[in-house]
Amino acid sequence: MRRLISYLVVLAANAAAQDAPSGGQAVEGQPVPEPAPAETRVKTESSSRQFVIHGSDFAMRSAIATLAEETRGELLSEVGDDGPWEHSIAIQLHGKNGDPVPARTMRTQFFQVPGGFRLQLDIHLAKGKPRDLDRALLELLLIERGLRGLGPERLEAALSIPPWLLDGLVESFLWRRGDRDRDLYAALFEKNQLFPVKKLLEVENPAEMDSMSRAAFRASTGALVMALLNQTGGKKAMVAMLKDVATFEGDEMALLLKHFPGMNLGEASFAKWWALQLARLSDTPFLQVLDIRETERELQRLLVVRFKDAGGADLAIPADQFRDLLALPLEKRRKAIGPVAERCGVLLYRAFPAHRPILVEYLRILGEIAHDTDNSVGERLESLAGQRTHLLAVGLRVRDYLEWYRITNAKQLSGDFESFIELKENLQSPPTRRKGPIAEYLDDMQRIYEDK
Predict the structure, then answer these.
(1) Beta strands in 249-321 (DSSP E)
(2) How far is CA 318 from CA 64, 99, 227, 322, 381, in A?
(3) How far is CA 308 from the centre of its chain?
């Protein structure tokens, strides 16, 4: 079930309740954590002062405060502001790295305090900083937006943020920073494994998915959120939806259509719109320059002239055999060459700079063949093949040199060679099949990227 943050309207009536870390009573009957000893009642406020971190040491509190402010800043950059914050967010740190790991390392709580509300996130540091801490912080920020301007008497529903919105915003943050792998979107899109919108809205607990479904879910939610923001007036509509989403009960598609009426399309039109959004994310940007190996792979893929012979069989002529195209009838030859020249012309803008003169020469040769001219085509093609081989070799040498430079200029050596010998022995031994979440994840990723 979706994580629900219920509310309990109870005024602090005695000094003991006021001494609770959050100033109120915890949700779902959970006891309020005991007050910290006087000597450990230390806190660190974030730069906006919306986050107050208690417990642990100064370094950990500062790291958490920095992450919280970064998450807040990314939310403001992505969707815009909705006025000054009204409710503080307390983060209580418990334990230390190496302690026994509890069943839950993070717990969100909601309290009423004099003058408003406060949200609290309890974190146990047994395994260090939790992996999904940024997601938990984002959830609290979104709930805080939903509480602005509301009094206890106006709260009639439990507070919750749907998983698709949380994951979608996190993905959009990563995409904006350039930290999201476009190839993952492309692989999932080509294999038709991305989620349709209606199915996205129905997911209640993504943590129960296998690793491949989880990756597809996050990619799909990111596509949806970015598609909504890219609509005309998308940021303004998103701000309005975030105001309603925390307390909304009902069909989430109705909530989307309320704030994004442009999505109110017929079933066929909506499917086309969704496919277009996914295709945009999976497509490589037009101005993104490829490296040497990527350019070589594109040349091998594009520099192939295809046509049907007299018997109707498909034939493919690679670049080193372009001269054989002169044997084709002129009109059939031009018809076959046209698409190749067009695709290579587009690649010219994205090819590695050193490959561009080579690509121009290929286009010149194709143009001459299309005009029935044989100006030393065979020798020129052989020269181009040699230049491509040389460029690829140079690229690999540069990569190896940079790795050598990084290793030889390391400022510190571990002096531990036993692990190196062990690794060598393991590589020489027959592979064994391992079971576990990491192996499952790697298997799923291999399935996603295979045949790419």
Answers:
(1) 304-308, 314-318
(2) 56, 62, 39, 7, 11
(3) 43
Tell me: pLDDT of 42 over 60: yes
User: What torsion, rounded to 10 degrees, do the Cα atoms 317, 323, 328, 330 define?
Assistant: 120
C-alpha atoms less than 13 angstroms from C-alpha of 128 in its C-beta half-sphere = 2
Q: Is the pLDDT of residue 7 over 60?
A: no
Q: How far apart are CA 340 and CA 203, in angstroms?
A: 44
Q: Alpha helix (H) ranges present in 246-376?
A: 252-259, 267-282, 292-302, 330-347, 356-370
Closest CA to 131 of 222, 214, 219: 214
| Distance between CA atoms of residues 329 and 271, nearest Å | 44
Tell me if 355 sits within 8 A of 299, measured CB to CB. Answer: yes
SS3 92: strand
Structure tokens that stand for 356 in this block: 């561009």
Spatial distance between the Cα atoms of 211 and 213, rounded to a whole number of angstroms? 6
Report the distance separating Cα 34 and Cα 40, nearest Å. 12
Angle at the Cα of 198 from the Cα atoms of 192 and 203, rounded to 5 degrees: 90
Quick one: average pLDDT of 216-222?
85
Looking at residue 420, what is its pLDDT? Answer: 57
Ranges assigned E (strand) in 169-291 = none
Contact in structure between 305 and 317 (CB atoms under 8 Å)? yes
Nearest Cα to 97, choosing from 126, 129, 131, 64?
126
Asked whether the CA dihedral 435, 439, 445, 446 is positive or negative, the reply is negative
Among 378, 387, 345, which Cα is nearest to 363's? 345
- Cα(335)–Cα(445) distance, integer angstroms: 40
Is the confidence at residue 319, as pLDDT, over 50? yes
Q: Percent of the chain having pLDDT more than 90? A: 20
> Domains along the chain?
15-154 (3.40.30), 163-282 (no CATH), 292-408 (no CATH), 418-449 (no CATH)
Rounded to whole angstroms, the maximal C-alpha distance in the chain is 97
Alpha carbons within 13 A on the beta-carbon side of 162: 25
pLDDT tens digits, one per residue of 395-439:
888 888 887 887 777 666 555 556 556 656 666 666 666 666 777
Interatomic CA distance for residues 73 and 81, integer angstroms? 10
Tell the residue number behind the tokens 């571990």, with chain if given. Answer: 414
Neighbouring CB atoms inside 10 A of 307's CB total 16
Token pair for residue 54? 């208690």
